[in-house]
Amino acid sequence: PVRAGTVLRNAVANTSPDARVAQSLSLSITDEAAPFQLTSDVMRFEGGQNYQILVPVKLIRRNGFENPVTLAVTGLPANSQIQVQVAPIKKEDSEALCRLFINGNAPEATYSVYLSGQAPVSYSRNPAAAERAKQKAEAATAALTAAQEAQKKAAAERDAAVKAATEADNAVKQATAEVAKQKQEEQKAATAVTQAAEEQKKVAADAEADDAKKQAAAKKLEEAQAAAKKAAEAVAAAEKALVDAQAAMKSAAEAKTKAEAAVTAADATVKTADAAKKAADKVATDAANAAKPKNTNVMVASVPLVIQVRKAPVTVTAAVPAGGALKKGASAEIKVTIKRQNDFTGPVKLSLPQVPGVSGLSAPEVTIPADATEGVLTVTAAGDSTEGQLANVVIRATADFQDAEVAVDAPVKINVTK
User: Fold this and answer.
1) What is the gyration radius of the CA atoms in the chain, in angstroms?
2) Over the chain, what is the mean pLDDT?
3) I need a surface site. Which of 24, 232, 253, 354 has the fewest CB within 10 A?
4) Residue 374 above 70 pLDDT?
5) How far apart are CA 39 and CA 114, in angstroms?
6) Whole-angstrom Cα distance, residue 45 to residue 307?
């Protein structure tokens, strides 16, 4: 069974941390991508004592990370008798080769290890929070701008309402004056009718008045009566205009009151929005300062690598002619000697495993029979093979031993020249 645990680390150098079993494990996952990641296509290795393991490591860089990465193999006990050779990945590279070699005296065991990579990273702490704060500040700014625009609009509508109310008030005053004026004209017309009627009456009573005079008096009365009717109609029209003007003035006054209330509300909204913007700006500034990139030493781990060490059925030695010198297009016969051990008595296959970064080097497989201890492996360098002193080249002996195929290696030096 697996149990969770907690580790308490202190700042004192070369001091082991304290650990204890815990009932639960808390795990928090963010959407922030790691600045770099170590991957390998091979995750399980099995071999005998004296066996070479080559782990091709790929480095995935993200978010502009360009620094070199220091690699290490973590999880091997001190008594594992497994050698580790791993070089840092340079800033211009994205691949590396980790070499592990199981010594001849390594104990049988299975190890779960992982590759760790360390590098200084310009790390921004919780940039998502800073981005959220920035967006809130931008939203607060937009809200303030909208409130200010609404305030301007309300003020303009208030000014228009005040102007309309003033014009309506003036219209009422003008209509009132017009009513008074038309009533005066009506009074004059009524007086003229009275005078014309009296004059007609006198003419009618005058025995000496002729028909022309009587007709003139009658016509004058008719004209006075028509003028009086027209004056009465003008008074009625003026009074109606006054009523309409008073209604318009009432509506304008109500609109003015409403517009002034809208300005008061808009002013309050602007004040609130301004305070919210200042608060959001402060939060955004604080979050941005907290999220400013700082150089931090970051460690990432690969997926687990499982190494199983088995007893070796044989030991292998290889005699490379000419000190390993091999020209392109030529071949070298390497004498390989095996010594059986651990009650192994079967045949052994010899081969030349491919090495990452090395091309053009090959050898056909050779089998050493069960009754023999030597074999010759012919290694050929193609015309386009990799030049120079080749690293990590081994002769591999493979045998069926204890219900498994167990491999044993013998490192050899090969120097390819033109």
Assistant:
1) 54
2) 94
3) 24
4) yes
5) 10
6) 5
> Is 10's pLDDT higher than 70?
no
Of 290, 323, 349, which marks where a domain is finished? 290
User: Residues 284, 166: one domain?
Assistant: yes
In this structure, the number of other CB atoms found within 10 A of the CB of residue 233 comes to 12
Tokens 């050898």 locate to: 363
Number of H helices, E strands in the chain: 2, 22
Range of the domain at 71: 1-124+295-310
Residue type, 61: R
pLDDT digits (tens, 9 = 90+) for 96-140: 999 999 999 999 999 999 999 999 998 888 888 999 999 999 999
Q: Report DSSP state, residue 333.
A: E
pLDDT band at residue 12 under the 50/70/90 scheme: low
Rounded CA separation 56/115 (Å):
11
Q: Is there a contact between 96 and 48 (Cβ–Cβ < 8 Å)?
A: no
- Tell me how many domains the chain contains: 3
**Both tokens assigned to 106:** 């390594």
Place of tokens 């000014």: 159
Reply yes or no on whether the pLDDT at 63 is more than 80: yes
Q: Are 130 and 284 in contact (CB under 8 A)?
A: yes
Q: How confident is the model at residue 57 (pLDDT cuts 50, 70, 90)?
A: very high
Q: Which band of pLDDT confidence, cut at 50, 70 and 90, is reported for residue 15? A: low
DSSP type of residue 32: P
Task: Give the pair of three-digit tokens for residue 129.
Answer: 């929070």
- Comparing C-alpha atoms, which of 274, 245, 252, 273 is closest to residue 158? 252
Residue 8: the pLDDT is: 77
Tokens representing residue 28 in the block: 């928090």
CATH number of the structural domain spanning residue 414: 2.60.40.10
Residue 159 and residue 154: Cα distance in Å, rounded? 9
Is 176 found in the same domain as 135? yes
Provide the Cα torsion 314, 315, 321, 323; round to 10°.
150
Amino acid at 310: R
The dihedrals phi and psi of 138, each to the nearest 5 degrees, come to -65, -40
